Automatic annotation (TrEMBL):
Pfam families: PAS_9. It comes from the Bacteria. SMART domains: PAS. Keywords: Plasmid. This is PAS domain-containing protein. Residues 110-177 form the PAS domain. InterPro entries: PAS (IPR000014), PAS-like_dom_sf (IPR035965).
Length: 228
């Protein structure tokens, strides 16, 4: 049996004949695309400004902002249709926003990694189990006789005396005691004329690991802007 078409209900408002039971699906594709964009734009704006998923009151504010744009564009659609559309799409809006954040973060990772990789000082990053999880090229070269990049995955403590191991653990415990505890001067290497520090690594305020920071005191030998 053929499905009957929905009866259109019209009303004359301000000289215009408007379909009162018009649905979102009845809109032209360009109109749908505009509204979809406005909905996401307002949702993203709220989450970015408040750093939280909108509650019911915020949902109304978001939809009202979208309705203002719809009216400015002179697109006719019953308000309730936009409320329904927003409620259906809200989970997808948050998923889209989360995916954008992940993509944005990944695009930054290459920048962060490049900063570490281009450092002429050795950088060895460890997790809280003291496992070496990353070595920059300078570290791989510097520790070549000890295994170079084969040290990744091994314990940093294996490379130190019992006394040094205790000191490393004391520093890590100090890092964990307060989120303001982030850097400790450990020693001066006279032969290489550098100061050495242990630095806390955090995800927001949570301690996730540490690395050894080397600051050389020798004067630079390169000529300024020597590009040739």
């Amino acid at each position: 049996m053929a499905k009957s078409k929905k009866t259109k209900i019209h009303k004359k408002i301000d000289g215009q004949i408007l379909q009162m039971n018009k649905q979102f699906s009845n809109l032209k594709m360009k109109q749908k695309d505009k509204i979809t964009g406005w909905v996401y734009e307002e949702y993203k704006k709220y989450v970015t400004e408040h750093d939280k998923v909108p509650d019911l009151l915020a949902d109304e504010q978001i939809v009202e902002a979208v309705l203002d744009k719809i009216n400015e564009a002179q697109i006719w659609i019953p308000d309730e249709e936009i409320y329904d559309y927003y409620r259906r799409k809200k989970p997808q809006l948050q998923k889209r926003l989360d995916n954008e954040k992940v993509i944005k973060f990944k695009s930054y990772v290459s920048f962060y990694k490049s900063i570490v990789d281009q450092d002429r000082a050795t950088v060895v990053i460890c997790n809280l189990k003291h496992e070496i999880i990353y070595m920059n090229p300078a570290a791989v070269t510097s520790y070549a006789k000890r295994g170079g990049d084969k040290l990744i995955g091994r314990s940093l403590l294996d490379c130190h005396s019992p006394e040094s191991r205790d000191k490393i653990q004391q520093v890590v415990d100090w890092f964990a005691a307060d989120e303001s505890h982030n850097i400790v001067y450990t020693f001066h290497n006279e032969k290489q004329n550098k100061d050495v520090y242990m630095v806390a690594l955090r995800d927001e305020s949570k301690l996730i690991g540490y690395y050894e920071k080397h600051e050389y005191r020798n004067s630079e030998t390169m000529k300024p802007y020597d590009l040739w």
